[in-house]
Amino acid sequence: MSHWRQHLHQHPETGFEVHDTAAFVAQKLIEFGLQVHTQIGEIGVVGVLKRGTSNKAIGLRADMDALAIQELNEFTYKSQNHGHMHACGHDGHTAMLLGAAQELASTGNFDGTVYFIFQPDEEHGAGAQCMIDDGLFERFPMQAIYGLHNMPGMAAGTMAMNAGGVMASEDNFKIVIKGRGGHASQPHHHIDPLVIGAEILLALQTIVSRNIDPELQAVVSATEFVTDGAVNVIPSTVTITGDCRSFSEDVQDLIEARMGQLVRGICDAHGADHEFTYDRVFWATINTATETQAAGQAAVALLGAAKVDLACRPKTISEDFASMLRVKAGCYVFLGNGIDSVGGCMLHNPHYDFNDDILPIGETGAAYWVTLVQQELA
Questions:
Q1: Stretch (H or E) spanning 117
Q2: 292 touches 331 (CB < 8 A)
Q3: Smallest Cα–Cα separation from 345: which of 166, 167, 160, 154?
Q4: DSSP string of 142-188?
Q5: Residues noted as catalytic
Q6: pLDDT tens, 214-262?
Q7: 294 and 376 in contact (C-beta within 8 Å)?
Q8: 3-state secondary structure of 281
Q9: For residue 362, is pLDDT > 60?
């Protein structure tokens, strides 16, 4: 598995352009003896493995795409695709699911059907929905679907999960303030979008502190403040963009509505025009109770209770596996990538690397998938 993983790491592909990765996955699944379906959701791959006579079926999902980041590691298998790297560990997710497919195809003792789902374009939030829209769950009927993500900062050989909200939704906003620019020496003749933007920036922080129930988690972050001005010119426009995270659609609705009210009110007070857009990119990832119990049971059987957190704190990162959980029962879990230099570098960092020690059968990654399948399709 480490050889597969390092091959994938050397040849990262992004978004829906994962042609070589998908071909590599499909070829391996064929070699293992699985029935293979390609071009699901444009470029996704599904491997089918059936044993016995049961109608029970589960899906296991791995993401295949990399990021548009220039890798700064210097090991032998560093990215050969300039400006792209596997900085989120999807190379490891793909390799461990391939390892589980190989193990289950050769020695698996289960009764039912396993669908091995290899998804493109997780990073942009489009891949899961594209596969769903292409009939993923109609063509491959399953009772539940499971996913995982490596997690730097968690000890290697540990797992974590919880029932309910485990990862946040992600919404992006854009505010364009349209003032009236001019020379900095005569501000009384202008409508200064910088002052208006500063008021809006401060007002946005009241949404979480004054409008949302303190028992609910939410984050509102303005991340860009861009003008068209110069050192001695008051600009005509200011553009503010940012990111919001929460765990329910009600909170998303509240943030969007309140943000619109604040922007409109502050701009109106200063006589400025504005544009406001609010886009929902990822849904919150909501694990279902029965499937979370099943995932926890498999993890404890594999690792022991001391190494499994069954009620972890929700994380405000986001994941498009959420789209699958909106239409199918399932559970998404975290797999420790390590704390020290081997696996502790955080995701989306040019020095990140997946920890190969968590791949093997008999350890955590692939072994978790095998254990879960043999438990649920007993």
A1: strand 112-119
A2: yes
A3: 154
A4: -SEEEEEEEEETSPTT-EE--SEEEE-EEEEEEEEEE-B-EETT-GG
A5: 65, 122
A6: 999 999 999 999 998 899 999 999 999 999 999 999 999 999 999 999 9
A7: yes
A8: strand
A9: no
* Dihedral angle over CA of 192, 193, 197, 199, nearest 10: 30
> Which top CATH class is 169-282?
alpha beta
Give yes or no for a contact between 322 and 167, defined as CB atoms under 8 angstroms apart: yes
pTM value > 0.90: yes
Q: Which two tokens stand for residue 364?
A: 């955590």
H helix intervals, the chain: 2-10, 19-32, 90-107, 127-133, 136-139, 193-206, 249-270, 289-303, 321-325, 365-376
Q: Helices (H), strands (E): how many in the chain?
A: 10, 16
- Between strands 112-119 and 44-51, the pairing is antiparallel
- Architecture of the domain spanning 2-165+284-376: 3-Layer(aba) Sandwich (3.40)
In total, the chain counts a number of residues equal to: 378
Query: Is the pLDDT score of 297 beyond 90?
Result: yes
Residue ranges of the domains in the chain? 2-165+284-376, 169-282
Contact yes or no for 361/101 (Cβ under 8 A) = no
End-to-end CA distance of the chain: 26
pLDDT tens digits, one per residue of 37-89: 999 999 999 999 999 999 999 999 999 999 999 999 999 999 999 999 999 99
